[in-house]
TrEMBL record:
Provenance organism: Paramormyrops kingsleyae
SMART domains with a match to the protein in the record: WD40
WD repeats: 171-213, 214-245, 296-337, 338-379, 382-422
Name of the featured protein: WD repeat-containing protein 37
CDD domains: WD40
Matches recorded under PROSITE patterns: WD_REPEATS_1, WD_REPEATS_2, WD_REPEATS_REGION
Length: 513
């Protein structure tokens, strides 16, 4: 057994045991800022500190030389120990440098205090200056994190200032999931739903009764949009077409609204149900319509969405064939084919007052198409998401709001779309979003059956309640606001085969926050 040079007898064994215990740790002395004497250089300061590792004649630590491990393993361990020692050495050097900077700053602070007081620096002067600096820092933190603290404060508000969400009515009758929901812009105000059961339905908002069922498509009906001035609907389908059809409905007498209300954010666990209550064969005595006024063709894939351009004389469609088409409504002729996306399109939307179109795609981008100048059709590509962009919609105030499978929603300014002005981060993929014109609220439908409400600054305001009596039981696909119906101003639809009408009351105080 090798022993330390110069040692003999029992004393050598004791010293060797102590040496083994000592080799387990690296002894690095902390530097006190009050020390008056320091080494000339940082490297000298490090070299002056003991490492706690003693080496034998073979350049191996004594404990390593005593080990029965193979030489290759011991070499690797020695290399690792050397790396650890170098890391501690670097940290120690940084520690010395930081303490020198702290002393320099303290010297400057002391000098400033003497200048202000015009004499000797007193404890009271330092306390006053420190208090002033702390006040400035506190104010800066409040300004910087105002939006973040608003989110926290809003969740602790009293019940009187919380958003109240009342489930007004359920619209049951489809035999498969509902992809899209919309509300007419002119009287009579009715609700429209587009379903995977190959049909679109018009509903009385007040009674929940089906007024008309369109069955002209040969595939899933993926979206429904209403003409801005006439009683016409535009539906997109998996049969690679979009249909324009006219409707005439008569509203029934209004039924009393059930008193079922709850503060938003309420959630109660319940057992999943495969079916919703109601007639599985659809609503009784619902008139049907089979023939379309016009059929828009030319796509080579599923038409996932369609919308009217401002004025209603043209319509745009988005398809899985990676193109969006612009049609003349009167002649059903193709006017422009908007190409450029690398993958399937997921959504399209038109500006309410300008000839602008925004298309979303699975290629993680959305594109802004400008038709305001008939001779120039410009396009801008925006890459703000990391996964499929499920929808992008315009607002009345020249903003674009985009939602994505990357679990974020971003608010953009049309005048400067280099970066979003607000980002909302959620815990689930976001489907087809909608923005309220009057209150400027964003309704987010999620894959996890939740619906959340945010303002345009990205501050969360509410979450629609879910319990064993109300709420969606499957993925929520779409939301739509109704500005002309105060008793039922938000509609949601999902793959549980039902649409739900809600009355959302957001106190002004909560919106200001």
């Amino acid at each position: 057994m090798p022993v330390e040079g110069g040692s003999a007898g029992g004393g050598g064994g004791v010293r060797r045991a102590k040496q083994k215990r000592k080799s387990h740790s690296l002894s690095i002395r902390r530097t006190n800022s009050t020390e008056q004497e320091r080494p000339g250089t940082l490297r000298d300061a490090v070299d002056a500190q003991p490492t706690g590792i003693q080496y034998s004649g073979n350049n191996l630590p004594l404990r390593m030389e005593d080990s029965k491990l193979p030489m290759s393993v011991r070499s690797n361990l020695l290399d690792l120990f050397g790396q650890i020692e170098r890391e501690f050495e670097n940290l120690y050097i940084e520690n010395i440098e930081l303490r020198r900077e702290i002393d320099t700053l303290n010297d400057r602070l002391s000098a400033d205090g003497q200048t202000v007081d015009g004499g000797d620096l007193t404890k009271g002067a330092l306390k006053t200056k420190a208090s002033h600096s702390t006040s400035q820092l506190s104010q800066k933190l409040k300004t910087t994190y105002k939006a973040s603290t608003s989110k926290i404060v809003s969740s602790f508000k009293a019940t009187t200032s919380r958003a109240v969400c009342q489930l007004v009515r359920e619209y049951v009758g489809h035999r498969d999931g509902i992809w899209d929901v919309g509300v007419t812009r002119t009287a009579p105000v009715v609700l429209g739903t587009a379903s995977a059961d190959h049909s679109a339905m018009l509903w009385s908002i007040e009674t929940g009764k089906c007024l008309l069922k369109y069955i002209g498509h040969a595939g899933s009906v993926n979206s429904i949009k209403f003409h801005p001035t006439e009683q016409m609907a535009l539906t997109a389908s998996g049969d690679q077409t979009a249909h324009i059809w006219r409707y005439m409905v008569q509203l029934p007498m209004a039924a009393p609204v059930p008193e079922v209300s709850a503060p938003c954010d309420e959630e109660v666990d319940f057992s999943d149900k495969d079916e919703v209550e109601g007639d599985p064969d659809g609503p009784s005595e619902c008139p049907t319509l089979r023939l379309a006024s016009a059929t828009l063709r030319s796509h080579q894939g599923v038409v996932i969405c369609a919308d009217w351009l401002v004025g209603g004389k043209q319509a745009v469609t988005a398809s899985w064939d990676r193109a969006a088409n612009l049609y003349d409504v009167e002649t059903s002729e193709l006017v422009h084919s908007l190409t450029g996306h690398d993958q399937e399109l997921t959504h399209c939307c038109t500006h309410p007052t300008q000839r602008l179109v925004v298309t979303s795609s699975r290629d993680t981008t959305f594109r802004l198409w400008d038709f305001r100048d008939p001779s120039i059709h410009s396009v801008n590509v925006f890459q703000g998401h990391t996964d499929t962009v499920t929808s992008a919609v315009f607002t009345m105030s020249d903003n674009v709001v985009s939602g994505s499978d990357d679990r974020t929603v971003k608010v953009w300014d049309l005048k400067n779309m280099r970066s979003p002005i607000a980002t909302i981060r959620t815990d689930s993929a976001v489907n087809r979003i909608s923005v309220s014109v009057g209150q400027r609220l964003i309704a987010l439908p999620h894959d996890n059956r939740q619906v959340r409400l945010f303002d345009m600054a990205g501050v969360r305001l509410a979450r629609l309640p879910r319990s064993n009596r109300q709420g969606h039981r499957r993925m929520v696909c779409c939301t739509a606001w109704s500005e002309d119906n105060p008793s039922c101003n938000l509609f949601t639809c999902g793959f549980d085969r039902q649409a739900i009408g809600w009355n959302i009351n957001i106190p002004a105080l909560l919106q200001e926050k």
